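Reviewers of the previous submission asked for a worked example of the structure-prediction workflow described in the proposal, so we include one complete record here. The input consisted solely of the amino acid sequence. No template or homolog information was supplied to the procedure at any stage.
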Amino acid sequence: MTRKVRVQVEGRELVLTNLGKTLYPDAGFTKAEVIDYYTRIAPALLPHLRGRPLTVKRYPDGVDGQFFFEKNVPGHTPDWVRTATLPAPGSSKGREKIEFAIVDDLATLVYYANLAALELHVPMWRVSEEGDPLPPDTLVFDLDPGAPATIVECCEVALLLREVLKEDGREGSPKTSGSKGMQLYVPWNGDEDTNAYARELARRLEREHTFVTSVMARRERPGKVFIDWSQNNPAKTTVAPYSLRAGSVPTVSTPLSWAEVDACTDPGQLVYTARDVLDRVERHGDLFRASTT
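From that input alone, the workflow returned the following structure tokens.
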């Protein structure tokens, strides 16, 4: 029997279900705890979601069960959830358009947490109030280590990127992916193609450093850090800051200080769970706020 609980969230009525279901079995982390995490982290998280079309990874039976990506809003979505209908070139389901949710408020965030949407992914661009796509406001470098390289080597590459960005008068904000790699976000307000700019910097570092590759082919990546510049393609998304990840424990894509990046000598230093991140934000605030919102 599915237990239902009716709650009010900022004036919206929501029906929460299966709150006792364990979504992270190894950690004993339940759906109620997922909803609690997203509710408490919302002040830091929502600025990075607002205006951005949402793609989620849903795990209705927990991280050990089947999952699916979802872009189109579910049929039972409340009418108060903001949506934007956008073209869907290359849709795997043959759709010409997709109706995306736009997570602008806590009620929408809780609605998706109740759907076991553990992972939240968004593009580097927003939509206008009318729902029209806007130019990119962020550039991202996705740093993916090929074993035996780890996030330690990713930190080395992030520091290299920081230096070359400084040459162009730009500053980035680093975060963990919540998995094995990390990302570097750069505020963007120019007309230049973000994909081309990121590709140029990735190839420059590939020429200058043997442990860096800009090539996607996996045979090129063992022992190297792949700088995935293609994440700037408007059709692609990246895991949002403060999103949970669907691993054995509830790790989080966590904003970092540059001091933490510089000091990293062991992968375990940069593994943060939901509880860790709530404590970090209480102590340090949103390390991303100054440069990406």
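The chain has seven helices and 15 strands. We consider this example representative of the routine output the project will generate in years two and three.
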